[in-house]
């Protein structure tokens, strides 16, 4: 009787182990498909695969970073911000997530300043115009083409001194 219980337990445990191996292999295959779709710029399929991987591995920084990138490409900026914030919660020193989140904040800042200008008689306010131009200029260039943030920081400092 004791041997029967042990054999039953061993069979059950080996079945569970095999299921876990299949699940890990399946997740690995999903990840490989996601990476291939992402590399081919098939972002719709990549997103679906990454989301399935994220369900099984909710602490996978790379998956959430790629989902943030896809959300940016889909112009779903709030979702992208959420993904990058999640990445930084998991890995606070993730430099590219910081960069992308900063770009999103700059883009939103430009939108808010444009709204502000549109609803106030500030079209002749040159410092606001310069600030909007600097934000648009910086946030629309590719990272390797960007000039120093010093120019943008100087404009912001100048704007702060006007407001005070």
Write the layout of secondary structure elements.
Blueprint (H helix, E strand, L loop, with lengths): L1 H38 L3 H14 L4 H13 L3 H14 L4 H24 L7 H15 L8 H15 L1
Span of the ends, CA to CA: 86 Å
Count of discrete structural domains: 2
Number of strands: 0
Helical percent range? over 70%
CATH class of the largest domain: Mainly Alpha
Proportion of beta-strand residues: under 5%
SSE-based structural type: mainly alpha
CATH architecture of the largest domain: Alpha Horseshoe
Order of helices and strands: HHHHHHH
Q: Label the overall shape.
A: elongated
Mean pLDDT: 77
Treating each run of at least 4 consecutive H or I residues as one helix, how many helices? 7
Which fold name fills CATH's third level, the topology of the largest domain? Serine Threonine Protein Phosphatase 5, Tetratricopeptide repeat
Using only CA atoms, what is the Rg?
A: 24 Å
Largest sheet report: none
Name the poorly predicted regions.
12-23
CATH superfamily of the largest domain, please? Answer: Tetratricopeptide repeat domain
Structure report:
81% of the residues lie in helices and 0% in strands. The chain is mainly α and 164 residues long. It has two domains: 2-93, Tetratricopeptide repeat domain (Serine Threonine Protein Phosphatase 5, Tetratricopeptide repeat), CATH 1.25.40.10; 102-163, no CATH class. The termini are far apart.
């Amino acid at each position: 009787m004791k041997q029967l219980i042990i054999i039953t337990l061993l069979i059950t445990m080996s079945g569970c182990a095999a299921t876990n191996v299949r699940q890990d292999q399946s997740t690995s295959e999903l990840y490989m498909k996601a990476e291939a779709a992402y590399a081919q710029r098939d972002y719709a399929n990549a997103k679906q695969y990454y989301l399935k991987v994220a369900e099984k591995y909710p602490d996978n920084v790379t998956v959430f970073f790629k989902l943030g990138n896809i959300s940016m490409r889909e112009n779903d900026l709030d979702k992208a911000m959420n993904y990058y914030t999640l990445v930084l919660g998991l890995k606070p020193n993730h430099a590219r997530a910081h960069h992308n989140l900063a770009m999103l904040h700059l883009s939103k800042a430009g939108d808010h300043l444009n709204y502000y200008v549109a609803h106030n008689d500030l079209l002749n306010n040159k410092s606001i115009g310069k600030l909007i131009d600097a934000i648009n200029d910086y946030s629309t260039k590719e990272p390797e083409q960007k000039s120093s943030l010093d120019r943008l920081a100087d404009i912001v400092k100048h704007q702060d001194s006007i407001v005070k």
